[in-house]
Specification:
By secondary structure, this protein is an alpha/beta fold. It has helices spanning 13-17, 37-40, 43-59, 71-83, 138-149, 168-174; strands at residues 21-24, 32-35, 64-68, 86-90, 101-107, 110-116, 126-134, 153-162, 178-184. It starts with 12 loop residues before the first helix and ends with a strand. Residues 1-6 have low confidence and may be disordered.
Length: 188
């Protein structure tokens, strides 16, 4: 049996946007949570999302794909497989069994940390970051810093969703990273 894979997305970004469920007042009152569960559970929608992201990564000259835990693993791994590239997991602390390179970064209410296996990154390799959503940009900026410290060239980040009112994409651009998103939701 042969599995056919189309290289053309079968759904437009507007059609994909319609698959994202909005959950009001989660995780706190006044927040409109954009839930991708309904997108990733839709086979054609997931496939089209991956095709759109893979084409952008290809055009960016990706030599490897990186994704942040956890939803960046979903899209990032799929894009890497689609392009025949390696995937670099950017992990939460304590998840890797080897000596890691890590970075602490500020959250709205506290701090967090990301870690990578520095042995998985070849110096000078062009790495494209892939994730589900860009909001304030804190996690993405930390990942860029971490990957660059490990020797990667990081000049492109791809996201399914942008929440432009939170300024994350602008912060990444200020750090020298081009940002591509499939669609956005205003007012969040």
């Amino acid at each position: 049996m042969t599995i056919s894979q189309s290289s053309e997305p079968t759904m437009s970004p507007a059609e994909l946007r319609a698959l994202v469920r909005t959950v009001p007042d989660f995780p706190s009152p006044g927040v409109q949570f954009r839930d991708i569960t309904t997108l990733i559970s839709h086979g054609q929608g997931l496939a089209a999302t991956v095709e759109h992201l893979a084409e952008a990564a290809r055009l960016a000259g990706a030599q490897a794909i990186a994704g942040m835990e956890a939803r960046g693993f979903i899209f990032g791994t799929a894009v890497a497989v689609r392009l025949g590239l390696g995937f670099l997991p950017v992990r939460k602390p304590g998840k890797l069994p080897v000596a890691t390179l890590g970075v602490d970064y500020a959250l709205e209410y506290g701090k967090d940390r990301l870690e990578i296996d520095p042995g998985a990154i070849l110096p000078g390799r062009r790495v494209v970051i892939v994730d589900d959503l860009i909001a304030t940009g804190g996690t993405a900026l930390a990942a860029v810093d971490l990957l660059r410290r490990a020797g990667a060239v990081v000049e492109q980040a791809l996201f399914v969703i942008d929440l432009p009112d939170l300024g994350g994409a602008a912060r990444l651009r200020d750090a020298g990273v081009e940002v591509t998103t499939l669609f956005h939701f205003d007012g969040d």
